[in-house]
């Protein structure tokens, strides 16, 4: 039930995960240089959406396994029980978790073939930390860095400021933007019910599970969203925080660039787009389009990703 409740939006640490070698999950050997990818996800999870946006933009074929957020039988092979999980085989099978680690590791692999994917993933070690409430969680060192040599770095980031800007806004998407989703899509009882109708429609539920998730989940998340609003110190009208954040992003992109990455999206563009698109079809998304300046950039992102999307 909790998995269903947080499928759309999410709270701090929702998709934190430890990277581990796959010993229990077999995968066929592949020709050198190729990637076999399987993404385990909830479609409405913003962290999963970030990964899909990245894979689609880079034209990487991948299989999707939609996880039932209540039973989660689809990921029973994994000791880690959250999503996204990406199974990647580039000669040897690996399990990668944490959306930002997944994106940084695969991007590094695409740019530089000096190291195996397994070696690249080792550059993002999990570190146990303890929250203010005494809860032990995993964080990842270097997760916004691409592990490139000097020549590769200069090719991807001609000036230092480009890299700094991309990392700053990727972190912003994880640390701030994503926390505005739940309070906005569950803002009122009506919106909460509409959000769970969307979750059930797009997710993997049995008939009874779907009815339970839709009505009980909507009520639960309406009240949870109020706690999230307080936790993140949002305004009484949480739409104002969403509008302000979105316009802050548009201002950072500026009037003279199509994307933050210039003529093509960079990892920050893909992260922000991935987070925002989980609201499509909901009242919060429509309000955002009307009351902010995001629409031209968002439409450009849709167009460029649709040209290369090859998910199977």
TrEMBL record:
Belongs to the GST superfamily. Its EC number is 5.3.99.3. This is Prostaglandin E synthase 2. It comes from Hirundo rustica rustica. One of its GO terms (molecular function) is prostaglandin-E synthase activity. InterPro entries: GLR_AS, Glutathione-S-Trfase_C-like, Glutathione-S-Trfase_C_sf, Glutathione_S-Trfase, Glutathione_S-Trfase_N, PGES2, PGES2_C, Thioredoxin-like_sf. PANTHER family: MICROSOMAL PROSTAGLANDIN E SYNTHASE-2, PROSTAGLANDIN E SYNTHASE 2. It comes from the Eukaryota. Keywords: Fatty acid biosynthesis, Fatty acid metabolism, Isomerase, Lipid biosynthesis, Lipid metabolism, Membrane, Prostaglandin biosynthesis, Prostaglandin metabolism, Transmembrane, Transmembrane helix. It is found in: Endomembrane system. It holds the Pfam family GST_C_2. Pathway: Lipid metabolism; prostaglandin biosynthesis. Coiled coil: none annotated. One of its GO terms (cellular component) is endomembrane system. Its main location: membrane.
């Amino acid at each position: 039930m909790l998995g269903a409740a947080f499928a759309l939006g999410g709270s701090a640490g929702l998709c934190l995960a430890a990277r581990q070698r796959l010993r229990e999950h077999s995968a066929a050997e592949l020709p050198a240089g190729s990637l076999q990818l399987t993404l385990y996800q909830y479609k409405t999870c913003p962290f999963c959406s970030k990964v899909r946006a990245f894979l689609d933009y880079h034209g990487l074929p991948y299989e999707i396994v939609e996880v039932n957020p209540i039973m989660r039988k689809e990921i029973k092979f994994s000791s880690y029980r959250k999503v996204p999980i990406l199974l990647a085989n580039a000669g040897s099978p690996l399990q990668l978790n944490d959306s930002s680690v997944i994106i940084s590791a695969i991007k590094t692999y695409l740019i530089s073939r000096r190291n195996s994917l397994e070696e690249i993933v080792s550059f993002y070690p999990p570190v146990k930390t303890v929250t203010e409430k005494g809860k032990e969680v995993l964080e990842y060192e270097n997760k916004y860095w691409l592990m490139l040599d000097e020549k590769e770095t200069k090719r991807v980031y001609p000036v230092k400021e480009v890299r700094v800007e991309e990392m700053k806004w990727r972190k912003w998407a994880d640390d701030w933007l994503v926390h505005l989703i739940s309070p906005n899509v569950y803002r009122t009882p009506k919106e909460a019910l509409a959000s769970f109708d969307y979750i059930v429609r797009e997710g993997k539920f049995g008939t009874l599970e779907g009815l339970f998730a839709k009505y009980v989940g909507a009520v639960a998340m309406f009240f949870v969203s109020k706690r999230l609003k307080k936790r993140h110190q949002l305004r009484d009208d949480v739409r104002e925080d969403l509008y302000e954040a979105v316009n802050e992003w548009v201002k950072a992109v500026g009037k003279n660039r199509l994307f933050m990455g210039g003529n093509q999206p960079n990892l920050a563009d893909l992260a922000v787009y991935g987070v925002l698109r989980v609201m499509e079809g909901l009242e919060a998304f429509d309000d955002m389009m009307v009351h902010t300046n995001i629409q031209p950039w968002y439409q450009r992102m849709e167009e460029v990703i649709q040209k290369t999307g090859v998910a199977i």
